[in-house]
Amino acid sequence: MIKYPIYVTLDTNILDAANFDFNEKSTLQLLVNYVKKGKVKVVLSNIVVKEAEKHIAKRGIYVCSLMRKLRADALKSATDYQIKQLGLGHILELSTGKAEIGQKSIDLLHKYIADLEAEILDTSKIDLDAIIDDYFEIRAPFQTGEKKRKEFPDAFIANQIRERFGYEEMVAIISDDKGFKEACQPWGNHLFFSSLGELYGEMNKQEKFYEATKNFVIEQKSDIESSLTQYIKNNVEINVIGLSHDRNGVTEGYDYSETCLNSLSDVAIGIHSVDEIDDNKSILTLKCESSFIMDCFYEDYENAPWDSEEKEYVYVDTIGIREEHKANFACRIEINRADNTFEILPFKIILGEDSRKERYEIETDYEYDYEQERADMDRESVGLNPLGDYETYLEEDLAESKMSEDIIERFNCINELYKEYEEISSTYDSLLELFVDKENIKSIIRIISSKLEEITDFPGIIDEDDISEEEISEIEKWIELKYEDALRKMNIANLPDSIGYGDDIEILGIDDQKLFLNIDEININPSAGDKEYIDISLSDEKEIIASGTVELTVGYIEYDEDGGVADSLADDIDYSYHSIIEQLNNFIFEQNNYMKTEKTILEIFEEVIE
Questions:
Q1: What percentage of the chain carries pLDDT values higher than 90?
Q2: In this structure, are residues 233 and 261 in contact, taking their beta carbons and an 8 Å threshold?
Q3: Which of 38, 224, 364, 480 is the most exposed place for a label (fewest CB within 10 A)?
Q4: How far apart are CA 289 and CA 279, in angstroms?
Q5: Do 385 and 393 touch, CB atoms closer than 8 A?
Q6: Strands 119-121 and 40-45
Q7: What CA–CA distance (Å, rounded) separates 260 from 240?
Q8: Rounded to whole angstroms, how far apart are CA atoms 324 and 326?
Q9: Following CA atoms 573, 576, 582, 584 in sequence, which dihedral angle do they give, to the nearest 10 degrees?
Q10: How far apart (Å, rounded) are the C-alpha atoms in residues 540 and 508?
Q11: What is the pTM of this model?
């Protein structure tokens, strides 16, 4: 049985394995919860802190490099204006330098350590400061023998732990490093755990609801496995590592540019550890197994010709590879024992050489059409869009269209109405404060009652000279409801400042009427001379009340025998949306009338308050 509070110390590999995830409900954040509950006291070596600073800064800088590359690649393919119109403008806003990103990453670590209220072990007792500096600078005696150089920190940290805790004070040592555990030595007061989950599992065996938590998973096993299957299909990032390296550094396999889940089967779960228990909820780590079939793709640059003028590979084929895996992985769930429900917490799956059962080439749906490329070049030379670019043409034109401008103008009118509720809520709040004085409030009620009964559902009074406590209470409740309604409306998110294909936008009126603007996805197969139609509709909660279309004309040009133009048609987009604007105008008219009533009520109350 573990006695509380128990001292806990972490090795750097535990922070690495947890990906420095300090988010709520993460394994690392649970340790903070145990500290706050008084069950755990954390002790960290300054060497662990220094190694962790180096590792988390490196991760931050790597992410910064990826974002810079993404930004550069995006700007090669599109203008900054187009990127912003697509809602991806955040990738252009990378102004922070790598050094600053590294320091911000370290600051996150420092905040976490502060939340842990961790005791930091320095080297004052054994005077190893100079040795640690030599180690990190790779000076003598650490220049040679990579393995030997890496063993020294383990020895230093183990020495710190022994000096701090001696032979009697109990300490839980969390490390997945066999060499570090050996360096710590199996003293009677040393408890070894390979993960925080292992420690939590041992601690929670003593908790009141431990058995109830395990029984919940056993009873709900089938439902959890079914939900986990759908969660993986819809939400989980599955990373397939196609490359492997042998001891001699020889690389084999494929560097995939894209992967997608083809099929998932045989998902099975078991309990790995119970990480946290409170009166109603528990968090668990599940050990999972499943079969995956992944379709993976890479660009075959080895067999692509090099264009020396453009300085790039051309006619690069995409090769499809199918990988079959039987993988073990972990996921975490939060269960609510009171409601008999559960929630799967976010996680990732990595598939690699250890889980791979089979790998083989598959045919790809895409085969490069060199004839079409030449035809597209001809179209561009006369001002027409390539047949493969009409989706982009439609998106860019919609962003600049009169239809978009007209609809957003109506959205802004509705947004402005919601802004009025900040003042309205403030007035109701001030009015509620007057109810403290029961005698004074009666005179106020006499003033407002007759005025409000004509225009609202105000409760009213029977006798002005004998206002009852029950009537005052009903009126106060009415004002409280109006106040809460104003607060709710004040915080309703604004309608968007742009529209796009595939949008399904809910338009909520201040009177709680709802309209729905739907713009269909782009689903076209353009051919020269064709017309393609994309539907637009405006619905209430029962039926479509207005409709429109976007009509795309796919241009073409034909030449006669002498090379002259025989026939031609220009690219064009026509928007039909008059009835939609008409219905939006009617809706806004109704909302303005509703707001007039709200303002009339407001004016009556403001007079009373003044």
A1: 46
A2: yes
A3: 38
A4: 30
A5: yes
A6: parallel
A7: 9
A8: 7
A9: -60
A10: 10
A11: 0.53
Q: What angle do CA 491, 492, 493 make, to 5 degrees?
A: 110
| Inter-residue contact 301 to 287 (CB < 8 Å) | no
Centroid of chain to Cα 466: 59
Residue 245 amino acid letter: H
3-state secondary structure (DSSP) of residue 171:
strand
Task: Name residue 9's beta-bridge partners.
Answer: 173
Here the tokens at position 385 are 């869009």
Amino acid at 198: E
Instruction: Answer yes or no: are the C-beta atoms of 573 and 551 closer than 8 Å.
Output: yes
d(CA 451, CA 517): 39
Between CA 11 and CA 175 the distance in angstroms is 5
Two tokens, residue 463: 């006798």
List own/partner pairs for 246-249 with CB under 8 A and 24 or more apart. Answer: none
Q: Which long-range contacts (CB under 8 A, 24 or more apart) does 140-146 make?
A: none
Phi, psi for residue 406 in degrees, rounded to 5: -70, -40
Token representation of residue 39? 């069950």
Length of the chain: 610
One-letter identity of residue 438? K
Q: Taking the mean position of all CA atoms in its chain, how far away is CA 119?
A: 34
Q: List the structure tokens of 140.
A: 């003598």
257-261 contacts, C-beta under 8 A, 24 or more apart:
257/297, 257/298, 257/299, 258/296, 258/297, 259/294, 259/295, 259/296, 259/297, 260/294, 260/295, 261/232, 261/233, 261/292, 261/293, 261/294, 261/295
Element (H, E) at 9: strand 6-10
> Model confidence over 128-180: pLDDT tens digits?
664 565 456 654 334 444 445 466 677 788 878 888 888 888 999 999 887 77
Per-residue tokens: 571: 């690219």
The tokens describing 233, both together, are 């299909």
Sort 72 into a burial class: Cβ within 10 Å, 0-12 / 13-18 / 19+: exposed
Residue 186: both structure tokens together: 């199996």
Helix (H, G, I), strand (E, B), or coil: what is residue 265? strand
Q: Name the 3-class secondary structure at 18.
A: coil
Nearest of 141, 304, 274, 124 to residue 209 by alpha carbon? 274
The DSSP secondary-structure symbol of 386 reads P
User: Alpha-carbon Rg of the chain, whole angstroms?
Assistant: 33
Give every CB contact of residue 348 below 8 A, 6+ residues apart in sequence. 236, 237, 238, 239
**In terms of Cα–Cα distance, which of 532, 522, 531 is closest to 501?**
522
Q: Residues 388-424: pLDDT tens digits?
A: 889 989 999 999 999 999 999 999 999 999 988 888 8
For residue 213, the surrounding DSSP H or E stretch is helix 210-219
Give the type of residue at 104. Answer: K
pLDDT averaged over every residue in the chain:
86
